[in-house]
Amino acid sequence: MSLYMLPLAIGPWQIALIVIIVLLLFGGKKIPELMRGLGSGIKEFKDASKEEEIEKNDKKE
């Protein structure tokens, strides 16, 4: 593994530490709301990118 890949190598201990920090920062009740917001944002992004692709295909024809 090269030195450039080391920051990307995340193991189970690092993931557990990140989860603990997120729980401490936001609390258990706030996390589902944050995930719902994140999910809806990703869904809107996908829908917008599909619409953009359709518009590009319509202009080609």
Automatic annotation (TrEMBL):
Subunit structure as annotated in this protein's UniProt entry: Forms a complex with TatC.
UniProt similarity note: Belongs to the TatA/E family.
Membrane topology summary: Single-pass membrane protein
Annotated protein name in UniProt: Sec-independent protein translocase protein TatA
UniProt-listed GO biological process terms: protein transport by the Tat complex
Compartments where found: Cell membrane
Keyword terms: Cell membrane, Membrane, Protein transport, Translocation, Transmembrane, Transmembrane helix, Transport
Role summary: Part of the twin-arginine translocation (Tat) system that transports large folded proteins containing a characteristic twin-arginine motif in their signal peptide across membranes. TatA could form the protein-conducting channel of the Tat system.
PANTHER family reported for this sequence: SEC-INDEPENDENT PROTEIN TRANSLOCASE PROTEIN TATA (PTHR42982)
Stored NCBIfam families: tatAE
Gene Ontology MF: a single term: protein transmembrane transporter activity
